[in-house]
Amino acid sequence: MNRYFARGRRVAGWLAALAIISMSVAALDAQAQTEMKGLIDDLVAANRILYRQGVVDGFGHVSARHPGKPDRFLMSAAKAPGRVTAEDIMEFDLDGNPIDGKERPIYSERFIHSEVYKARANVNAVIHSHSPTVIPFSVTQVPLRAVHNTASFLAAGVPVFEMRKAAGMTNNLVTSSARGKALTETLGDRPVALLRGHGNVVVGPDLRRTVSRAIYTEVNARMLLQAVTLGGPITFIDPEENKQIESGRGTRITGHGVDRTWQMWLEEATR
Amino acid sequence: MNRYFARGRRVAGWLAALAIISMSVAALDAQAQTEMKGLIDDLVAANRILYRQGVVDGFGHVSARHPGKPDRFLMSAAKAPGRVTAEDIMEFDLDGNPIDGKERPIYSERFIHSEVYKARANVNAVIHSHSPTVIPFSVTQVPLRAVHNTASFLAAGVPVFEMRKAAGMTNNLVTSSARGKALTETLGDRPVALLRGHGNVVVGPDLRRTVSRAIYTEVNARMLLQAVTLGGPITFIDPEENKQIESGRGTRITGHGVDRTWQMWLEEATR
Amino acid sequence: MNRYFARGRRVAGWLAALAIISMSVAALDAQAQTEMKGLIDDLVAANRILYRQGVVDGFGHVSARHPGKPDRFLMSAAKAPGRVTAEDIMEFDLDGNPIDGKERPIYSERFIHSEVYKARANVNAVIHSHSPTVIPFSVTQVPLRAVHNTASFLAAGVPVFEMRKAAGMTNNLVTSSARGKALTETLGDRPVALLRGHGNVVVGPDLRRTVSRAIYTEVNARMLLQAVTLGGPITFIDPEENKQIESGRGTRITGHGVDRTWQMWLEEATR
Amino acid sequence: MNRYFARGRRVAGWLAALAIISMSVAALDAQAQTEMKGLIDDLVAANRILYRQGVVDGFGHVSARHPGKPDRFLMSAAKAPGRVTAEDIMEFDLDGNPIDGKERPIYSERFIHSEVYKARANVNAVIHSHSPTVIPFSVTQVPLRAVHNTASFLAAGVPVFEMRKAAGMTNNLVTSSARGKALTETLGDRPVALLRGHGNVVVGPDLRRTVSRAIYTEVNARMLLQAVTLGGPITFIDPEENKQIESGRGTRITGHGVDRTWQMWLEEATR
Predict the structure, then answer these.
(1) Phi, psi for D22 (deg, rounded to 5)
(2) What percent of chain D has pLDDT over 70?
């Protein structure tokens, strides 16, 4: 990773990305530029963290809502997440159109992102993955529920999107706004939905917390699978417990919660 | 891997390989030489990728049909796939005879490859592996079926080859043209067949796509095993879904499908 | 890890830590300083070993009773265990108050440690983890019992702490002395207790042995899960066998038991 | 591993080991010295390979019969196998006594080795391990049987040694000749036996083949566990198939069988 992630290239990278992302960037003031740079750095890190943690393999993508323009979002060009650099970050509108594509390949399922941002104003980051232990729950009748504190957000329930109901026999890919809208309706106001035989979508109020949710969704799926293997009644995290757990996670406190794991994941991903 | 894969040795390697692979190589024109060099590079990479992804261990082999002579195929001398270099690539005819063996050891099960190429003109790459999670499906009655989009090609059905039916009590190895022919008949026109208590054979229209199939066959086997553990009715990828998914994979588009994962796997295998 | 763990920084680290840990350190004689330095080194190593062995991820913590003051214990500031350095080691009293916090973030569940030290005079080390294969046992009815010699200490029985019984619907975290006390009562005189939907607590007579217990609790959980998968009656380690096994582990003999594995784990963690 | 395994130290190591292993070494002629050096190198490699492949962790040991004196065997001093160097290799007699211990710690379960060598003249290597997926089979009623060609040697049957039957309630360790003899009687003329709640013993005609057996015993255990998870009747490797498979493995052929995997494992272990 070093050759892609070295400081020199990273700086060059976000400068290039800034130059690429719409004409209006030139008009950004200094503070907005700093904010944008931080978000691009985090978005590149998010790609590499999700790869390193086994949530994405060659497929999957992560996006963040544009900090200054709520009807835009940032996401990599079509590339394996573990190889994404700042130069790959592109800007899209909420119909999934690239603002300045420069003929780079783009993810065919970008509509997962555009439709979620359209429907949910309080969502600022979206992840689509083929999270490996999540997929078995998408093709069976066992609901993915929270058994571990760190994934308590699953206590809200995890619906399964069935493309066949929304669009009949297809390639089972979310390759249009219509399909993305159908998925978003299944998701409702929850943080996670599964896509049958395909993967999941994870959303959240900010990028780092959404990355954490995607990782602990996979971790919790492994634990629940093992609990089912052990058999008998399973004690799930109660929605009331989740409420109290989540309220303690709301802010960014140095050394706690998402901040603690992010620093570790970042170090692991750039090792 | 660096000491085997460094550019210097690689160049020396394919030159040596070109020199080795039949006298007619000298007569190849420049374009054919470039094509051959690319294929040898890909074949070495395929060996190392399949090892790095856990599809092969010390055993297993991967071959590609000769780009200029359809009745020949290229495959490594007998060696652990993760250690294969360009110098190891040999040429074989469709009876499994090496063209210029130079007394190197050769895989005793090369007839898996020769018989598939003989029977199926549209197959240009063959992989035999002891793919670990695939073997349990070969010794039980649970069919290996597609639960994940990326392995939709399994929707065609995955037959199990039983050597005892073809040849009685043997060493359970495909060490003759007759056994290879029997296996090929079980495979039929499908992309994957299992060998009971032994492994699988995976075929495809080109090398990179066949590598992808072998990897996602293993990934899908893990997911199906977990789905069986969860229990209840399982929703499989429908043959019609597979048809639409596969039609979208047909071409080599930069940044999409097989190209996206190949670039990642290559980077992982040469790290 | 090298940049955090290099000898130079480590020496600087324990000097800094000594300076930080209460004013009375200045009065320590040379022997006590050496003992303290050794313990801080071991505590940093314990954090990194537990991370490297997969017992802790970003969460979890490990502490040791102060060698000179039995009503104090040493533990890192709030940080992912795999990133802890000697500078992070802090001193706490048995109400969970930091002695000289220097405004560093502290673990909200430090009361797990303080209450165990308060209740059990023969315990000198405490580990709290989200040991992944242990958690499924905390949410089902299958008791975690010893199936492997190296985890024979589990033959004493592994109780499960249910926060709902102790404190009703909460965030399921041990964030007060009262909750810590309730957990300690469930633990009783045993080496391990599970926290439902959360993790475990592991205690022991010294730090290295407690680290070994935490690691083999996870290893044994994996084996028991597999034994349950195989089905049928399971032969557990008998309490009498445990008694004889544990009596042979009591001392620190070079090359045997805890010493043998500690040297290996240390090498793995600092590689 | 490099710092322990570098060529310079390795040469120094076997010289030191030669000097240590009994006074009679001085009298060895040049050919015998070369043979001994090769065996010590292989024994060190075997320790590191078994560690790298996950068959041993901090515990477990591997020995080889002395090439010149059939009533002696070579084994490391008490140390984690992954850390063994040539200097650690010691000579023992068939009562488990070290010939020139030099006060180094020795494995308390060396009687597993001494008794096997005493009882079986055609065995030249012995491995004891806590092979992780093997242990669940030792505490349940599911026999460990061969489902994969590479572990066909298990078709001879894998008995389980129950210490309680041989010696009552003990520490479940083979710490005497009497216990070693009882284990050897359970093993009979087979290549593998399990020790209930403890691990296994694997024997063979030479060191490299025995290492291969230990590794594929673990691999086969994983596959059988998965087959049991899938359920239904399982097709095992037939004893007659094993006979034909094993007869093809008898010799050391460059690039085939044990030679192929040994070269790979060696490279992995010294990477």
Answers:
(1) 60, 150
(2) 89
Please write the tens of the pLDDT for every residue from C64-108.
Answer: 999 999 999 999 999 999 999 999 999 999 999 999 878 899 999
Q: Six-digit token pair at B188? A: 């039929």
Q: In this predicted structure, what is the pLDDT of residue C254? A: 87
Interface test with B, best of A1, A133, A141, A172 (most B CBs within 10 A): A172
User: Which C residues 226-265 touch D at CB under 8 Å?
Assistant: 226-227, 229-238, 240-241, 244-245, 247-248, 253-256, 260-261, 263-265
Contacts of D240 in chain B (CB under 8 A): 169
Q: What is the mean pLDDT of residues D3-25?
A: 51
So what's the pLDDT on residue B145?
98
Residue B103 is given by DSSP the state T
Q: Kindly state the tokens that stand for A94.
A: 């909420």
CB of A2 within 8 Å of a chain B CB? The answer is: no
**Mind listing the pLDDT tens digit for each residue in D145-157?**
999 999 999 998 9
Give the nearest partner residue to A142 out of B230, B237, B265, using CB atoms: B230
> DSSP letters along chain C, please?
-HHHH-HHHHHHHHHHHHHHS-GGGGG--HHHHHHHHHHHHHHHHHHHHHHHTTS-SSS-EEEEE-SS-TTEEEEE-SS-GGG--GGGEEEEETTS-BSS-TT----TTTHHHHHHHHH-TT--EEEEE--TTTHHHHSSS------SGGGGGGGG---EE-HHHHHSSS-S---SHHHHHHHHHHHTT-SEEEETTTEEEEEESSHHHHHHHHHHHHHHHHHHHHHHHH-S---PPPHHHHHHHHHTTSS--TTSHHHHHHHHHHHHHT-
Q: What is the structure's pLDDT at D10?
A: 52
- A171 touches A84 (CB < 8 A): no
- The string of pLDDT tens digits covering residues A102-117 is 889 999 999 999 999 9
How confident is the model at residue B19, as a pLDDT? 57
ipTM of the predicted assembly exceeds 0.85 = yes
